[in-house]
């Protein structure tokens, strides 16, 4: 049976509030959780950006949920540092932690002042980072010189089992490229005629027996209009396709790109409805695609209503 998880958005809420949200989600019946890992939010209205790894230790210590995080090793984070963080969480919370990796976005990764590389270079760097991390988790002393450089690194605190490394993919091309080496795929909700080719590309090129997960973007509030308005206020900077947005460097850049986005436009990327039955029906359709886990991200700021209502009316319907 697929697990239904709660997505903790560091861009929108303080770490203290997110701890309350994830605990409430566990009590409501959510079976898993994951979080973002940003340095900047996408807009000043989102307005937060706590450190994911500090928060994960607290969240995992105060719940029993399995957790994942989306991370871009190789720029802002050296892969040896990411490997150490993953190993530490895995050692403390055996079997409960997984990581999804991606090539990153300039809004977070360019803060170091390094040149922002082209997508093919970022992909090459990402693959090297995954190889480095796995070697470190295996106990090897690693020296590597390529898109990233590692000199005589060795982890002394290692996980009991090899951590799962998912790829975060938004396109068929990325899913196909990562299928042979990733332990699983995570993508975001899109029309099913867009999602199916991504899933098929992953399964047909090396990922046929591997888990596939979906992060669902939805807006839920007391009324449809409140949900739509809240989605526009919080998420209009996030409705673009793959490509140009990965090169934007500041929240102001994203806000400028979204200046003509209307509330109704956001519904192309976010499922807006105040009806739990309608939300449950959408999620049921997702499960028919074969996802083993859905991570629900209510982009609206009203989290308590969402958690409680979905716990009472949506999660039981899906089970």
Automatic annotation (TrEMBL):
Record keyword Phosphoprotein present: no
Record-annotated Luciferase-like domain positions: 4-291
Swiss-Prot/TrEMBL keywords: Oxidoreductase
Gene Ontology molecular function: oxidoreductase activity, acting on paired donors, with incorporation or reduction of molecular oxygen
SUPFAM superfamilies xref list: Bacterial luciferase-like
Residues spanning the membrane: none
InterPro entries attached to this UniProt entry: F420-G6PD/mer, F420_G6P_DH-rel, Luciferase-like_dom, Luciferase-like_sf, Non-F420_Flavin_OxRdtase
Alphabetical list of Pfam families matching this protein: Bac_luciferase
Superkingdom field: Bacteria
Gene3D superfamilies linked: Luciferase-like domain
Claim: Repeat is one of the keywords in the record: no
NCBIfam families: F420_G6P_family, flavin_revert
This protein's name: Similar to F420-dependent glucose-6-phosphate dehydrogenase, Mext_1273 family
Lineage per the UniProt record: Bacteria, Pseudomonadati, Pseudomonadota, Gammaproteobacteria, Lysobacterales
